[in-house]
């Protein structure tokens, strides 16, 4: 499990321990519904890195994730996970889709999580002893054993997120793709959730890609930022990517990066925030 | 009452149908697709009356009509905008066609009543064989696809990422619903399919049981309600479908207080164990 890395905890450790990158994209073009969303994108993410994926609505965050899951074939280029080309149903990749309308809220949290345990196999929905142990372990990891007893419909958004996070851990993945896990949470819960995910990833030595509308709840946790705009992607350290020069070049239009009160705002010249800092007012108060 | 042949046939038929309706209904309620089974039964009505007109058995027509509509509905998926309007239109055109076919039938009144409100005492032994075959097939299919269907129902995006073919499952499931609906209509009639298909399943889902227990529980409750309806009908001479609908409604209303009582007991026991 590499607990030594977890103990070290510093952002630089992964750089010395990796050989094969967790993610490697070379000249990838991805389309969704006939529209090209990412055009000739190349980047690679080292193992163990915690990456915040940022960009406005429609910038391609979900499409990128679908591409990495093998659900959206690339028009061009190759996407590799742990050195192998992406394929659908890869059990080393954990995925948490965007929160959606609740289905089956009558079932308990436990049943909800257990349904995902080898849920792609034919047969009756029966876990077996090994399956129950796996579900138990995943729920323990996110501290949700008590929640799992209740019907899902009785849980808050943040509590449901914890169950979904437990679900991604069932197969012991090495890469987590989390699509907007902080959306629909109240500001106080955002930072708490981000820290929880970060701690879990460090402890299990997982690589995490986590998309977000706003960068502020992730400040101080990210090793890298992946910024998507206008079909292009920019990957790098927070201090290198979130600068007026870098983002102006990426957008091809004047963009200001403003730092105020310990928070970061990305603002277009015509006015209006590109990311949505109001999502996280006070988010840092809990840091 | 069991000394009569037609009653033994009726009990057996009720068992064969209810044991499928329960678990299929459990998934219908879980997925929020109960309206689909209602619509399928109406399309089946047109199929049944058409079959009568052409000299086939109504069960054949019902199954064929519902199955065709179910597969089409599954293929259309959620992509069709204004889906509820479209289903409603197809449904009313189907009922209209059924009315036309009945108009051409000489013995239309009794046939219409049997189709609309069910005729469990009129089930022949050859029909019993058909019901057994259909139920066996449905249960086998459900036993094979229950696990991925549950996963895909609860977490479509995640299931897709893990390799479940959502679109295929959608079509297969609606085909299953169509067959179960056609079977159910033999007992409750096309207008009251809800009573056996949805009521027991919704009752069981209210109890918050784990999926496998819920599936078997729904089958058991559906059989009990169908048999209960038959027995009450024997005692009172009221129609069986009336009693099944009453039992279904009463069971659903009782489920909420029962569920809260059980969860309170469980919670109390847990707390006393912990302390």
Automatic annotation (TrEMBL), chain B:
- Keyword Transmembrane helix carried by entry: yes
Just give the chief location class: membrane
Q: What biological-process terms (Gene Ontology) are attached?
A: response to zinc ion; transmembrane transport
Recorded GO cellular component terms are:
ATP-binding cassette (ABC) transporter complex
Annotated TM spans:
12-30, 50-73, 85-107, 127-151, 163-181, 187-205, 212-230, 242-262
InterPro entries, A to Z: ABC_BtuC-like, ABC_TroCD
Membrane topology, from the record: Multi-pass membrane protein
Family in the record: Belongs to the ABC-3 integral membrane protein family.
| PANTHER family linked | ABC-TRANSPORTER METAL-BINDING PROTEIN, METAL TRANSPORT SYSTEM MEMBRANE PROTEIN TM_0125-RELATED
State the protein's name.
ABC transporter permease
| Upper lineage | Bacteria, Pseudomonadati, Pseudomonadota, Alphaproteobacteria, Acetobacterales
């Amino acid at each position: 499990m590499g607990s030594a890395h977890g103990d070290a905890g510093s952002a630089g450790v992964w750089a010395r321990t990796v050989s094969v990158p967790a993610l490697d994209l070379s000249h990838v073009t991805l389309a969704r519904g006939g529209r090209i969303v990412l055009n000739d994108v190349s980047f690679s993410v080292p193992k163990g890195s915690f990456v915040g994926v940022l960009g406005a609505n429609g910038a391609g965050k979900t499409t990128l994730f679908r591409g990495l899951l093998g659900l959206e074939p690339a028009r061009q280029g190759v996407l590799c996970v742990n050195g192998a080309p992406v394929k659908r149903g890869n059990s080393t990749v954990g995925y948490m889709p965007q929160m959606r309308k609740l289905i089956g809220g009558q079932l308990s949290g436990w049943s909800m999580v257990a349904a995902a345990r080898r849920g792609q196999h034919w047969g009756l929905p029966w876990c077996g002893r090994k399956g129950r142990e796996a579900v138990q372990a995943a729920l323990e990891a996110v501290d949700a054993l008590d929640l799992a007893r209740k019907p899902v419909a009785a849980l808050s958004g943040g509590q449901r997120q914890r169950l979904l996070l437990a679900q991604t851990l069932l197969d012991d993945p090495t890469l987590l793709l989390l699509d907007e896990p902080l959306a629909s949470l109240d500001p106080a819960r955002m930072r708490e959730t981000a820290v929880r995910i970060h701690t879990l990833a460090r402890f299990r030595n997982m690589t995490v890609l986590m998309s977000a509308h706003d960068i502020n709840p992730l400040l101080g946790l990210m090793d890298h930022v992946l910024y998507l705009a206008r079909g292009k992607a920019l990957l790098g350290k927070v201090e290198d990517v979130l600068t007026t020069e870098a983002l102006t070049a990426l957008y091809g239009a004047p963009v200001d990066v403003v730092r105020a009160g310990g928070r970061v705002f990305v603002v277009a010249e015509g006015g209006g925030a590109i990311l949505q800092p109001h999502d996280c007012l006070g988010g840092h108060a809990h840091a | 009452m069991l000394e009569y042949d037609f009653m033994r046939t009726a009990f057996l038929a009720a068992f064969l149908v209810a044991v499928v309706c329960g678990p299929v209904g459990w998934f219908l309620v879980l997925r929020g697709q109960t309206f689909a089974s209602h619509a399928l039964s109406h399309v089946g009505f047109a199929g049944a009356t058409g079959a009568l007109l052409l000299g086939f058995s109504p069960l054949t027509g019902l199954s064929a009509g519902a199955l065709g509509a179910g597969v089409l509905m599954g293929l259309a998926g959620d992509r069709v905008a204004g889906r509820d309007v479209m289903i409603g239109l197809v449904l009313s055109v189907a009922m209209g066609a059924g009315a036309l076919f009945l108009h051409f039938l000489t013995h239309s009144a009794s046939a219409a009543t049997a189709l609309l409100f069910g005729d469990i005492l009129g089930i022949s032994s050859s029909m019993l064989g058909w019901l057994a075959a259909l139920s066996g097939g449905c249960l086998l299919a459900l036993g094979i696809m229950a696990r991925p269907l549950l996963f895909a129902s609860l977490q479509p995006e995640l299931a897709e990422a893990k390799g479940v073919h959502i679109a295929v499952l959608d079509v297969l499931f609606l085909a299953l619903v169509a067959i179960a609906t056609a079977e159910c209509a033999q007992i409750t009639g096309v207008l009251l399919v809800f009573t056996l298909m949805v009521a027991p399943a919704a009752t069981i889902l209210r109890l918050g049981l784990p999926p496998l227990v819920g599936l078997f529980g729904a089958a058991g409750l559906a059989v009990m309600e169908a048999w209960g309806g038959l027995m009450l009908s024997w005692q009172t001479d009221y129609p069986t479908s009336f009693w099944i609908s009453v039992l279904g409604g009463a069971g659903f209303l009782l489920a909420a207080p029962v569920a809260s009582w059980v969860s309170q007991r469980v919670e109390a026991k847990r707390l006393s164990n912990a302390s």
